[in-house]
From TrEMBL:
It is a multi-pass membrane protein. This is PTS fructose transporter subunit IIABC. The keyword Transmembrane helix applies. Residues 3-100 form the PTS EIIB type-2 domain. Residues 131-466 form the PTS EIIC type-2 domain. It comes from Oceanobacillus sojae. GO terms for biological process: phosphoenolpyruvate-dependent sugar phosphotransferase system. NCBIfam families: FRU, fruA, PTS_IIC_fructo. The chain crosses the membrane at residues 142-161, 181-202, 223-245, 257-276, 297-315, 335-359, 395-415, 435-455. It is found in: Cell inner membrane.
Amino acid sequence: MTYRFLGVTGCPTGIAHTFMAAEALEKTAEEKGVSIKVETHGQRGTENQFTAQEIKDAEVIIIAADKNVDIDRFHGKKVINVSVSKGIKNPEELIDRAISGDVAVYKGSGEAASSNNEKSDQGSANIWHQLYVHLMNGVSHMLPLVVAGGVMIAVSFMFGIYSADPESSQYNVIAEQMNTIGGLAMGLMVPVLSAYIAQSIGNRPGLIIGFIVGMIADTNGTGFLGGIVGGFLAGGLVLLLMKALKNLPKSLDGLKAIFLIPVLGIFIGGFAMWYLSVPMEAINQGMMNFLSSFQDSNPLLLGLIVGVMSAFDMGGPVNKAAYVTGTALLAQGNFLFMAGVSAACIVPPLATGFSVLFARRQYSQAEASAGYVNFLLGSTHITEGAIPFAAKRPFTIIPIIMVGSSIAAMLTYMFKVEVPAPHGGFIVLPVVTHAFLWVLAILIGAVISGFLMALEQKRHQRKNNAEQATAPAPKEQPASKKQGSLLETNQIHLQQKLGSKDEVLTFIAEKAKELNITTDAKKVVSGLQKRESEGSTGMENGIAIPHVKSDAIQQAKLMVVQLAEGIDWPAMDGKPTDFVISILVPDGSSNEHLDILSALSRKLMNQEFIDQLKASQSEAEIKELLLGGVKK
């Protein structure tokens, strides 16, 4: 089948938004009478993938995605590129833009030629959206590792805080294995984040270099922020190398892909990341010394410093500086400092869970599920569960989380809580002094941050809605298209005894010939049958809308056939067809064919309209309904 339009949908988690956007585009395209095939990029991978021929034949490709979707295969095609939320909330606008044809042509490497009536295609992704897409491609692949690894580690602590340590009396072999498996999964977090950011920018070569750079970032303790920097470094490096090597003979393409780009990329990117890590290590040591000097200071000041550092990068170098300082002081018998660090580290994931509870309608199903899982991760001192939430809007979410972490740490120090274990979260409560007050301090901080996050999420959603509301509306069709001339009573045929789809199509063509609508009935029949071979025009409730565009048709007209009995005409609901509305349009009539289909499809989505149409007993009544609408 040849599709007029192609659609691509994808969201970072690939669970809900991907398929919601696909359904919205398909439904809207169906309503407007145009064919579309939608390729989904979800957690199960790419489904309904396009063939090279489908891409070649398509007039416009609509990309509604917040992740990398290999756009380079659409080189030379008209491409609309927007966020996945636009696909869900504004599918009609996207389809109307595609129908108009006033869309920029994608030239590769992010370049697009401006359409005739626009200096720049407003739907095309700007640089900030592209950066967000690259980042979310990394986050979407990282998220399952954080959840799976974090849960495994959390469960291992249920056997005992030191159950994974062979030297401890609590040692349990299953707990050790679970802890190790979870640790390996968590250890892949930074390399995977870096690799898939780079892959989004530089395709497969970026993936390879991104993994190596990410491993260096992780090995040198730069945390997830180092992974992000490394991912963009590796992706940008691939683009530069491809540009630098583009003039090599085509015979060396294999050598370039397998040898030159990977080796040069790892060499340059690896050394760059290695030396970027050196100052970060020095900064870490400086922060540890700085923190140690505050251990006996004012609890409010100490709590503020510890809270800000713990929430700043959630598992990164700044967070680790606070954590390592706490563990070092534990060895000296100072259990107070670690209590504040643990509280501050537990707050971020709990805050995301509370935010989802406070503003459930503002989050997607995937985000809500991650928020609920974070109650478990936070309770076991796994801060990384908050990273996907923070990564989307770090300049607003991270400061909010810092507030809650600081409050929890301050209260912990004021309550003089002591925690002798370096990890474990609420599982270590039996060995915590003033355990109730410690939990209370954490919950107060998490609830405050969660409430502020919920307010921010609502503000963000309102802003998005306002932007969409003020976006340019789709251009209205010219009023010069006189619908009154489309249908006369002699074009409506009631209670016809026809036994098959082919008989109906032939009947329509012959009547059109008699009425001088067409000069060649055979051409009309052939065109109608060809359209049916591409996909049935049978809709629901016994309605079919066969249509044809041909140079044998002299003017755009509707032909209506009411059947005495239902016939087999493949329909979406599988029911027999007994009412046929055919659209005949001259070749070269611009989008008139689609305009008529669109208007008719909208009417046929109204059950009251269909009921009145099927109950009509006269040609005049049917004409009035089709040209006017539902009778009140």
